[in-house]
Amino acid sequence: LDSFFQVYCLFCHEPIRPLIGWKSLVSEEREQHLCLVCDQKLVRLEGEKCRICYRSFHYLDERYRRGDLCHDCVRWEEDNHWCGYLDKNYSLYLYNDFLKETMAKFKFRGDYVLIKVFAEQIKQLADKINPTMHVPIPLSDTRLYERGFNQAEAMITEAFKPNHLLSRLHSEKQSKKSRTERIHLPQVFQLETSHNLKGEKILLYDDVYTTGSTLRHAAKLLKKAGAETVESITIAR
Ligand SMILES: [Zn+2]
Ligand SMILES: [Zn+2]
Prior knowledge:
Helix content is about 35%, strand content about 15%. By secondary structure, the protein is α/β, with parallel strands linked by helices. A four-stranded parallel sheet has the order 5-10-9-6. A hairpin with a 2-residue loop joins strand 3 and strand 4. The model has no long low-confidence stretch (mean pLDDT about 85). The structure holds zinc ion (ZN) (2 copies).
């Protein structure tokens, strides 16, 4: 194979070989970006999922499910301070060990490449949701300086114009706190607009949905400012 035409996997940097029947095995949008080995380690979230957070019921014990909601969402929705703010989250892939390691690597290197791999799928999903505003979850200034770019914003800019409606109030790491602390934590974001958001259908972007706390803090602020719906897209769940 002419090395000029050789394509390398963006995750593992191995050359991507055009195997026989390769096109039919790998989905169109990722065929130039990932080798077959890496592609197969990505697990799409398919089948029955939580109505709000997109958690796959396939990987969840029945005990942690109530109707069409997962246990975590039931708890959020039963809490008067949080119910009804985040309408729905959509995620592309299961946050398995492979994706965890890959995302950590790119976070550490501040690499834009991860976005290239998922850009087409994010665009397709966002087109389907059809929001009036695309809002990135902001990074703290320190994290932005360390990484060089905001991944959540990069998820948008490949296809849409971001609306910078939010900024961070302080940079304390959420992950260091217990769930109870997070729930009772005062707002971590502030609004960057004085406009009424009445009638706006807002789509939030973040790289990973873990506890849902970050997205719900953002959603609460936006709903209180008049937003009609607040949904979100994350790469991993
Ligand atoms: Zn690879
Ligand atoms: Zn849920």
